[in-house]
Amino acid sequence: MLRRSFFTLLAVLATVTAQAADAPKKLLVVTVTTGFRHSSIETAEKVLAEIGKSSGAFTVDFVQQPPGQPKNPGRAPEKKLKETDEAFKTRQENYSQALAGYNAANAVWTEQVKAYMADKMALDKIKDYDGFIFANTTGDLQFPDREGFVELIKGGKAFIAMHSGGDTYHPFRGYVDMLGGEFLTHKAQVEVQPILHNPAHPATKPIPAGWRVFDEIYIFKNYDPATVHALMGLNAHPNEGTPGYYPVSWCKDFGKGKVFYTSLGHREDVWDPTWKADTKDRKNTPEIARTYQEHILGGIKWALGLVECEAELGNVKAVAE
After folding, report:
1. Where are the domains of the chain?
2. Fold (topology level) of 24-75+118-303
3. pLDDT digits (tens, 9 = 90+) for 17-49
4. Contact indicator for 88, 53 with CB cutoff of 8 Å
5. pTM of this prediction?
């Protein structure tokens, strides 16, 4: 009887273990912005939930910032051609008042974000997630323990970021080193045809040869090709055409964790094949958006360890100019 009970227990444990292995991974999607806020964030949230559900690979929870982010008045005015000194002085004064109001309101709002993030991103509350997605985040996210978060990824979690996830935590070197690069600038949105450096990788395998996409293409700094596995890139500046290497997407092991980043994803029609269908606002076909979804799904699954692929570092030797 004891022997039979022992083997029954083993069978139950094996079943439970198999079910746990097959269960969807848990991802926490962060869409907080303390800098520029992309209009595509809401679309990104929808798409990530949809592809998680349709693939069965993962579920998502969200950390979204408190409402009420004040609007930055932008750059100081410059004198217009034929503008009178009096008119220009008036515009300068109006701008100064608007800037002072913004600074005061932003200080209050930043404290609200800080308190919100202290609750939502406390390490004891997020430690059971399998990974994290920064979907078009910007600025200082006010994490209660940003160093602890990086160590959490290094300890075996997945980290995935899209587009302005590369325009996040600039003063924090730990984040930049984890990601593998840092946003420097961009010019006008443009159509590009990225080079596929590893067509066998899950993030690039769905992308057909000659694939073109219209988006805001980032130029990076603090990017060292020896420290990442390049997935997509350009051999010339996306707008100017001057020679040089310009990365678009990459991945890397990070301690026991894995990092996947794609700089694509500024536009709604890159994310969503249904966004403003059959209107002049679309610059990308639905098929391009479906390919992008497969691109990020492949990267997410790789980062979560659901699919395997060699990702040796330094597979592209050129250095971005």
Report:
1. 24-75+118-303
2. Rossmann fold (3.40.50)
3. 444 557 999 999 999 999 999 999 999 999 999
4. no
5. 0.90
